[in-house]
Design a protein that fits this description.
Elements: H1 8-75
C-alpha cells in the first residue's frame, strides 16, 4: 500500500465520526431554537405583565364602582 492510499476502515471511521458530529450539531441547533423561542415567550410575557395588572385593577375598580352605584340606587 502506498502512503497516499487510505485504508477503507479509516475512511469509514472518519465518515462515522463526521456523521456523529453532524448529528450533535443538529441536536445543538434544535436545542438553541427551543431556548430562543422560550426566551421570546418570556420577553413577551414580561412586556405584557404591566398591561395585565393594570387591566385587572381597572376591572376591579369598575366592579367596585358598579357595586356602590347599585347599592346607592337601592337605598333611594
Amino acid at each position: 500500500m502506498s502512503a497516499t492510499t487510505a485504508n477503507p476502515l479509516d475512511i469509514q471511521e472518519q465518515v462515522a465520526r463526521i456523521e456523529r458530529a453532524q448529528e450533535e450539531t443538529r441536536k445543538f441547533v434544535a436545542e438553541q431554537h427551543k431556548l430562543i423561542a422560550e426566551a421570546a415567550k418570556l420577553e413577551r410575557d414580561r412586556r405584557l405583565a404591566p398591561i395585565i395588572v393594570i387591566s385587572g385593577t381597572v376591572a376591579a375598580l369598575i366592579a367596585a364602582g358598579v357595586g356602590v352605584l347599585a347599592k346607592l340606587l337601592h337605598v333611594t
